[in-house]
Amino acid sequence: MERVYTHSGMSPPSLDEPFNAQDPAEALRQEPEVLDAIRNIVAAAAQISATVCDPMRVAVNTSHAFHISSCLLAASDLNVVEILREAGPKGIDATAIAAPSNVDPGLMARILRLLATHHIFREVSPGVFANNRISSTLDKGKPSGVLFSNRADRLTGSSGVAALVEHTADIAGKSGVYLSDTLLNPTGRIPFNVAYGTEEGIFPWLQGPENHYNVSRFAVAMQGTSATEPQDMIFQGMLHSCFTGFDWGQLPPNGTLVDVGGGIGYTSLTIAKKYPHLRVVNQDLDAPTDLSKAYWKDNFPGHLDRKMVEFQVHDFFTPQPKTEPTVFLMKYILHDWPDDQAMVILKHLRAAALPNTKLVLIEKIVPFASAEDVVASATKHIPGASRPTAESPLLPNWGAATADLYLYDLTMHVLLGGVERTLEGFWDVLAHSGWRLDEVHHCPGSQLSHLVASPI
Ligand SMILES: C[S@@+](CC[C@H](N)C(=O)[O-])C[C@H]1O[C@@H](n2cnc3c(N)ncnc32)[C@H](O)[C@@H]1O
Questions:
Q1: Could you tell me which residue ranges the O-methyltransferase C-terminal domain spans (predicted)?
Q2: Catalytic residue flag (residue 335)
Q3: How confident is the model at residue 375 (pLDDT cuts 50, 70, 90)?
């Protein structure tokens, strides 16, 4: 990493400075050599720490880890990042940070100190805090006064990272603590149901009028998942002479891209902006469809004016409307559902598919934490299926460098009974629903892969 930066006459971005997406030093982080180095450094640093630390202390500290999540939620909810942005690099004391939300300054300092100890925020002098590279990514981009005066709208128009952090730390955080209870007392309820005292699944629950704030926070959060990925992740590129994504440009003029469970349509809008010859059908439940119309109007009105985008309220557990699909796109959908329900969704798509329709799933594919038995794998012949593993003594999956895969897996479980699948897991649900997995593309710098399937 140092070699690449020295060669380019730059330094890697500093942990003490706010994140700046336009900084050329950020772009250099996406170079294949740097990506490889970062993965090794993160895996090695965590493994060295686990090796040398007192083991009891590691276990007990891990049992307290929920405080990191809840303090991050509190800091974001109380718009601390924006107050600190306005204060500048010298920072501001906890009394001033706590004043707009009228909370105890001593407690505010303790919350921020715990986070600063985990490299989120900086305590520049006793009781005085400033943003750093990590905290600044939660900036919602508005003056703090505006955020405090209009709570309902505080997340709209932001990058979505704060919304993602708040949604996860809030709803998954409250649910996750019930994991063990639901295993010890199996009643078929998932942790979310126990935490929120509801029999509804999270998506119907979010549609309720009392959850208007939560449903729009979730929609913005989905956009935030893209902000945590390289911008061109959705497009095809080349890495080590392999294609890294599905080639949307090969689809014919007026071809129809059906974004199933598309949310606000962030992904299909990004594709349509680059390939405006594609028609888009954005499907979702009622509330996200309304948000989607507004999102397209603000961000790509030309496609609306040309009548190249349609918004369908559609429940994907019911038969598909007639759309003449060239591609069904499902991003972050199958991971929400256990296998039996995932297969219901896939079978409805299969029934509506034309012979040449492609299915593109954009999902995380979870490796094992052990070395994989490639010979025994049902997927070994699929182009793009195999992935490199780390060199010993690192964990084969690069341990901490891929932790997000396993964290999201449990978030899917506690919220929905869902699962981040292994490649075999995808192969199984697809094959049982009438789809053949043709190819897999792994996207460098991203935990997401493109799985491309055709009707059997
Ligand atoms: C994890 S989000 C993914 C959104 C979008 N594909 C993206 O990547 O930003 C799951 C989406 O599925 C939608 N959804 C949940 N249940 C649904 C159903 N039964 N029919 C249609 N959409 C549904 C949710 O409203 C939500 O927008």
A1: 178-372
A2: yes
A3: low
